[in-house]
Design brief:
alpha+beta, Translation Initiation Factor IF3
């Protein structure tokens, strides 16, 4: 195999080509794992979620963020709950504050239809 073709004289090396291909393949897979672009994971909350259930959802989001995934948090309204968007925003703010050490807020909580969404991305 030619190692340095532009050197004077060119440098060549004798090696097992199968072993070389194997090592190159291993390096490529290692680099692919490191460059993994996180997929979008979704977490759905209800307006009347209790504190312990919210903490369980926070743990789930933390797991997703540690896997380098983007997390979309949706708080769903039913019926007249939609008129209390201030309380929903407080719940989403609490959710984000619990994950502030490993996540950044990519999209602030905003209301769309019968739900309120926010998007969290892992810190670099």
């Amino acid at each position: 195999m030619e190692v340095a073709p532009k050197a004077n004289p060119p440098v060549c090396k004798i090696l097992d080509f199968g072993k070389y291909l194997y090592r190159q393949n291993k390096l490529e897979t290692k680099h692919k794992k490191q460059q993994k672009q996180g997929e979008m994971k979704g977490i759905r909350l209800s307006f009347r979620i209790d504190k312990h259930d919210l903490e369980t959802k926070i743990k789930q989001a933390r797991k997703f963020l540690e896997q380098r995934s983007i997390v979309k948090v949706a708080l769903l309204f039913r019926g007249r709950e939609a008129s209390h968007s201030d309380i929903a925003k407080e719940k989403l703010d609490f959710f984000f504050d619990s994950l502030k050490d490993i996540a950044q807020l990519d999209q602030v909580p905003k209301k769309q239809g019968s739900a309120m969404f926010m998007i969290l991305t892992p810190l670099k």
